[in-house]
Specification:
The protein is of the alpha+beta class. The protein has a single domain, classed as Cyclic Phosphodiesterase, Chain: A, CATH 3.90.1140.10. Helices cover 34% and strands 23% of the residues. Pfam families: DUF1045.
Length: 226
């Protein structure tokens, strides 16, 4: 795919969990197409998932960035990184939680030093391919609402929620009021239960690209093969 506006690195879930997430959000990053969403009484699925849909079902490992340099060099560096990292599992797996402004996401049940280390090394390893943020991009992050450390991360790494402030999460909805969040949780819990593994495998990373309409597509998914 050519003409991509930004690149990112995601964790994308394999198998049935990944298929569920694509259908829930209505966008399949691997196929690069919209997919039918489930019909659930009492929930407007299109509205519920409008914000996260274009990103696809994922956890951000390196946030979207404009490219500095050649795409081929980025792809080679990504492949080299994956070849030097080992797969692991998240003990306790994932659980559904309500985060931030009220959105629902899957998060680890326990902190993982292996996951934190992987994210930190990835952010640093690929940062030479990130074009500097523009003033408008910085303003969109609302720096006045960030902690001093997060503002430092924004300036140094182009994203505030990295390193010590990294939180692995796989977004399933936009921000919801308490009642809608409760109804969405009630719909999600039984559907997710048979799909969640313990440990949850972290065995590959996905290089992603953003098209002109803001939708993310899978470029390459590579195993952590050290």
């Amino acid at each position: 795919m050519q003409g991509l506006a930004r690149f990112a690195v995601y964790y994308t879930a394999p198998g049935a969990l990944g298929d569920f997430g694509a259908a829930w959000l209505g966008w399949d990053v691997a196929a690069g197409r919209a997919v039918p969403q489930p019909r659930i009484d009492g929930l407007d699925m299109a509205a519920l998932t409008d914000t996260p849909r274009r990103y696809g079902f994922h956890a951000t490992m390196k946030a979207p960035f404009r490219l500095a340099g050649e795409r081929a060099a980025l792809e080679a560096a990504f492949a080299n990184f994956c070849a030097t990292e080992a797969a692991f599992g998240l003990a306790g797996g994932l659980r559904l939680a309500r985060l931030g402004g009220g959105f629902l996401a899957l998060i680890p049940t326990a902190r993982s030093a292996a996951l934190a280390g992987l994210e930190a090394r990835l952010v640093a390893a690929l940062d030479r391919f990130r074009a500097p943020l523009t003033p408008a991009e910085i303003a969109r992050r609302n720096p006045d609402r960030l902690s001093p450390r997060q503002r430092d991360h924004l300036q140094r790494w182009g994203y505030p929620h990295v390193m010590e402030d990294f939180q692995f999460h796989m977004t399933l909805t936009g921000n919801l009021d308490a009642d809608t969040a409760a109804r969405a949780s009630a719909a999600l819990e039984p559907r997710l239960a048979p799909l969640l593994a313990d440990p949850q495998p972290i065995e590959a990373l996905s290089l992603m690209g953003e098209d002109a309409e803001g939708r993310f597509h899978l470029i390459r998914r590579l195993p952590l093969s050290a």
